[in-house]
Amino acid sequence: MTATELMKFYEVDSHLRSYLPLIRDSPVYPVISDRNGVVLSLPPIINGNHSKISLSTKNVLIECTATDRNKATIVLDTMVTMFSQHCADPFTVEAVDVVEVDGSVSQCPELRSRMETVSAKAANSHVGIEESAERIASLLTRMSLSAELQADGDSIRVSVPPTRADVLHACDVYEDVAIAFGFNSIAKKIPETNCIGEQFVLNKLTDKLRLELAMAGFTEVLTFALCSEDDVSVKLRKPLQSAARIANPKTCDFQVARTTLLPGLLKTVSSNKNMAMPLQLFEVADVVLLDSGEDVGARNDRRLAALFYGKTAGFEVIHGILDRVMQVLAIPTQRYRVVATEDSTYFHGRCADVVVDGRKVAILGVLHPDVVTHFDLAAPCSYLELYVQALA
C-alpha cells in the first residue's frame, strides 16, 4: 500500500482514525525503517510486524514521536529511565545518533540532570514547618531528588534527575518537601495576618438580594458575560455605545463585554418559549463599562436585573420587585422616587428612572415591541435593572 492508500484504509478504523489528521495533510510522512529498507513504523499511525517484540527479544529500540519536541524529549527520557531497570546491565542505555534535516547530529536520549539551589528557610516558610536544613535535605531524597547542604547552613543544592520533568522552579521543590513531610503532619494554625477574612460586602449584599427575588417567585439565570455588538445596540434600538471589545473574537456571538444584563435574559426567554407563561427571571451579575480612570481602562459594575414575560406586560410585578428590593435595603419610600423618562429600548410613556437621594440607581419599564421581536419573542415584557454598586 502507498501512504495515501493507508490513510483511506484506516479512515474506518475506530482506534486509529483519530490520529490520521496529524500527518494526512503533510507533504511528507514520517517513516522508520531499518538498514535494509524494511518499514518498522509509520508514526503515529501504525507499527510494523517486522519490529514486533517477542519473549525472545533482547535489543529494544524505544522511539517517541510528537508534534512538540520538548514534550517528546520528556516522554522519551522518562520511558528510557523506567525501562532501563530491566536491562541486562541495569540502568544503562545505549544512545543513538539522530541526523537532523540540516545535517547536524544529536544524541538521544538526552537524560539531562540540572541543579537547583533552594533555601531551607524559604522551604519552612512556604510549607509552614520548622525543620533543620539537614532534615529538609533528607526529606528531598525521599522524592528522588539528590540534595546536598551547602557551607552557609541554609542553601541546599538539589539535583533534578531526568525522571522529574515536573520540577520547574524552586516552589516545586518546596512542594516535594511538604509531600515528604506529610500534609497531615503540618500543624494547623491561624495565619499571622492583621485581620480574619470575611465575605466581600458587595457579594454579601447580592447574595441577600438573590434570596429575596427567589422567594418572590423569580428564577435565577446565569448568562454569558460576552455578547455580539448587535445584542447591545441594534436589537435594543440604540446606537453602538462604548463597550470593551474582544480583540480577536472567534465567533460573532462573543464580540464585546455586555453593558447591560437585558440581552442575556431575553435570550434565555427565547430559548424557553415552550415553558408555561408567565416567565419570571432574574440575574445578579457584573457588566463591563469603559472607564479611563481605571488602570485597565474598564471596570466591573454589579447589576440586578428582573424580567417578566407573559400575556400581559406585568409592569406592576416588576414595580413590586423594585419596592421589595428597596425594603430589603432599608430605603424608605420617602428617599426614592420613580421619575418618568424616555429610552428607545422601552415603550413610549412606559419607562422610568429610579432616583435615590437625587442619584439614578435603576431603570424599569415595558420593553418596546421591536426589542421583543428582535429576540424572536411575541409576548410583552417588563424589565428592571438596578445598579447595585450605587446602593452598596
Layout of helices and strands, plus pairs?
Blueprint lengths: L2 H7 L22 E2 L5 E4 L3 E2 L21 H15 L12 E4 L5 E4 L5 E6 H8 L5 H10 L3 E4 L5 E6 L9 H12 L19 H15 L3 E2 L5 E2 L28 E2 L4 H9 L8 E12 L7 E12 L5 H14 L7 E5 L5 E11 L2 E9 L1 H6 L6 E7 L5
Helix pairs in contact: 3-5, 4-5
Describe the structure.
By secondary structure, the protein is α+β, with helices and mostly antiparallel strands. It is 24% helix and 24% strand. It has nine helices and 17 strands. The protein has helices at 3-9, 69-83, 120-127, 133-142, 170-181, 201-215, 262-270, 315-328, 369-374; strands spanning 32-33, 39-42, 46-47, 96-99, 105-108, 114-119, 146-149, 155-160, 219-220, 226-227, 256-257, 279-290, 298-309, 336-340, 346-356, 359-367, 381-387. The strands form five sheets. Strands 9-12-13-17-16-15-14 form a seven-stranded mixed beta sheet, sandwiched between helices. Helix 3 (120-127) crosses helix 5 (170-181) and helix 4 crosses helix 5 (170-181). The protein is flat. The N and C termini lie far apart (73 Å). The mean pLDDT is 90.
Strand order in the sheet with the most strands? 9-12-13-17-16-15-14
CA-to-CA gap between the ends? 73 Å
Main sheet attributes: strand count, strand direction, barrel closure: 7 strands, mixed
The structure class reads alpha+beta
What is the number of helical segments per DSSP (H or I, 4+ residues)?
9
